[in-house]
């Protein structure tokens, strides 16, 4: 038994509101996601979070441990709970970034067809009423044999002013359409591409990149870098293995004043000489302040240094105890031993800026060069291993540390100041996200300049026969920006029409 038509209609009427509600909800959601205002709101939120990340030191930055220790317990708790110590990896930052990217894509899809129409199907004619309502506009009589001759004269003047022209006819009237910078209508979409490129580069860098530190002193090597890991109210350090080993061969600090301190205020540059070893072999490199080193997606920067004073090289004055002329010897830190004339081998193994013996052990009383001393290793011709000390200050003859060793008495006459160790910052960027980010930034600057410093200008001329040898021309134009520039070119166009081809132009 079939249902009556009334019953069928009733069922359709009852079922349609559910579909309509769903359609309205989806339409409202898409309208919101493609809204320019919504996109700007998300962009402001991202800018605010990025500024927060600059004002609150992030956990991967060198010196974060000191910054964290200076915070109050409530700051540690709140900042940690909100993820503000690592804001670029928080779920809400990434959510805003993804939704904003979706907003840009949807807004572009919605508005692109209209912008593309300006290029593919430009408006070639316009009514007299429309043209008189434009700013600027002008109405004048032009002397010409026919409408085609008048149109050619106007077209030539427009081309001389930098416009591309097209002549058409419609309903007995002739139209000249002139435009320049039509591609400017697509400038906003180039900006969108630049923004999405920046977002992609930032996403790759934040999620797949790593930044850590490695402390190196001459003779030491490491295959790990250390990163900060933050868990609510606790800061920890975690080691990340590197696919190669970094050995430090030398560290150097170029000072402004040789007699000054090794503080940054007296420093021109820090240099760390390293040797990288992996399955590909060995390679030497130098990392200094303005010259980072790149290898296998890892970039090495100078980050900081251990302020404890040390020496890169020393100059010793050796006085033989069995007679003979004294001699001066210069030794490099942790280099191979130097052999003297009698076969004695001497090596510079350590340095104390403020020599002190405490509990039977050699230590330093401070980081400053108050009582510098070099610790030496001697191997006599007979093979005996000895330790000697060389001081820059004169010592009493009965001082044990200043007693002759291996037949020589040692005096430290000069040394090149250098810190105990350098700290390198290592940034890992496996997908070259930073490069993509910089490309996007450069593209954004170029596209913004193109959008704001250029414009799409259109001028129409409506030509109608008025009397024998005379034609009425209604000229009008508009632009999407830089109205002043359009009006200036419009005046030049009128002036050109007055003097070109001996045409008599009379502005109404």
Give a quick rundown of the structure.
The chain is α+β, with helices and mostly antiparallel strands and 508 residues long. It has helices at 5-33, 36-55, 64-69, 73-82, 91-120, 128-132, 147-160, 187-208, 433-453, 483-499; strands at 137-143, 164-170, 173-180, 210-216, 221-231, 234-255, 267-278, 281-288, 293-295, 298-320, 327-332, 338-339, 345-352, 355-358, 361-364, 373-379, 385-391, 408-428, 457-467, 470-479, 505-507.
What does this 3D model show about the protein?
With 508 residues, the protein is an alpha+beta fold. It folds into four domains: 25-114, no CATH class; 122-181 and 455-507, Kinase associated domain 1, KA1 (TATA-Binding Protein, 2-Layer Sandwich), CATH 3.30.310.80; 207-309 and 422-445, Tick-borne Encephalitis virus Glycoprotein, domain 1; 310-416, no CATH class. It has ten helices and 21 strands. It has helices at residues 5-33, 36-55, 64-69, 73-82, 91-120, 128-132, 147-160, 187-208, 433-453, 483-499, and strands at 137-143, 164-170, 173-180, 210-216, 221-231, 234-255, 267-278, 281-288, 293-295, 298-320, 327-332, 338-339, 345-352, 355-358, 361-364, 373-379, 385-391, 408-428, 457-467, 470-479, 505-507. Strand 7 (267-278) and strand 8 (281-288) form a beta hairpin. Helix 7 (147-160) crosses helix 10 and helix 8 (187-208) packs antiparallel against helix 9.
């Amino acid at each position: 038994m079939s249902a009556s038509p009334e019953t069928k209609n009733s069922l359709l009427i009852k079922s349609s509101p559910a579909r309509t509600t769903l359609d309205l909800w989806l339409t409202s959601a898409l309208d919101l996601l493609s809204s320019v205002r919504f996109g700007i709101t998300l962009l402001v939120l991202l800018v605010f979070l990025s500024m927060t990340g600059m004002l609150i030191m992030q956990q991967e930055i060198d010196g974060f441990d000191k910054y964290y220790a200076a915070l109050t317990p409530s700051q540690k708790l709140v900042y940690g709970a909100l993820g503000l110590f690592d804001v670029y990896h928080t779920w809400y930052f990434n959510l805003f970034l993804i939704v904003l990217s979706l907003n840009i894509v949807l807004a572009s899809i919605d508005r692109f067809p209209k912008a593309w129409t300006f290029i593919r199907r430009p408006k070639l004619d316009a009514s007299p009423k429309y043209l008189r309502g434009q700013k600027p506009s002008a109405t004048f009589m032009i002397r010409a044999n026919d409408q085609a001759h008048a149109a050619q004269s106007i077209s030539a003047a427009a081309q001389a002013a930098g416009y591309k022209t097209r002549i058409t006819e419609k309903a007995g009237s002739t139209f000249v359409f002139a435009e320049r910078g039509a591609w400017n209508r697509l400038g906003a979409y180039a900006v969108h591409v630049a923004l999405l490129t920046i977002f992609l580069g930032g996403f790759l860098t934040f999620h797949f990149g790593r930044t850590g530190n490695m402390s190196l002193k001459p003779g030491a090597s490491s295959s790990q870098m250390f990163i900060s890991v933050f868990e609510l109210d606790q800061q920890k350090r975690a080691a990340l293995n590197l696919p190669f080993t970094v050995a430090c061969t030398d560290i150097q600090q170029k000072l402004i004043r040789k007699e000054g301190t090794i503080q940054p205020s007296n420093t021109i540059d820090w240099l760390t000489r390293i040797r990288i070893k992996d399955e590909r072999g060995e390679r030497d490199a130098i990392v200094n302040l303005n010259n980072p080193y790149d290898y296998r997606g890892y970039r090495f920067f100078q980050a900081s240094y251990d302020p404890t004073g040390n020496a890169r090289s020393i100059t010793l004055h050796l006085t033989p105890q069995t007679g003979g002329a004294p001699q001066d010897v210069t030794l490099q830190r942790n280099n191979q031993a130097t052999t003297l004339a009698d076969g004695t081998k001497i090596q510079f193994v350590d340095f104390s800026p403020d020599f002190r013996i405490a509990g039977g052990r050699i230590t330093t009383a401070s980081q400053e060069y108050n009582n510098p001393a070099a610790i030496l290793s001697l191997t006599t011709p007979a093979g005996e291993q000895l330790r000697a000390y060389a001081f820059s200050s004169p010592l009493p003859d009965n001082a044990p540390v200043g007693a002759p060793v291996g037949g020589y008495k040692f005096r430290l006459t000069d040394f090149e100041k250098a810190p105990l160790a350098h700290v390198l910052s290592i940034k890992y960027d496996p997908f070259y996200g930073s490069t993509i980010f910089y490309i996007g930034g450069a593209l954004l600057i170029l596209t913004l300049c193109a959008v704001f410093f250029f414009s799409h200008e259109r001028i129409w001329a409506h030509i109608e026969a008025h009397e024998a040898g005379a034609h009425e021309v209604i000229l009008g134009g508009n632009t999407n920006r830089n109205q002043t520039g359009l009006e200036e070119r419009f005046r030049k166009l009128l002036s050109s029409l007055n003097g070109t081809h001996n045409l008599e132009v009379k502005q109404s």
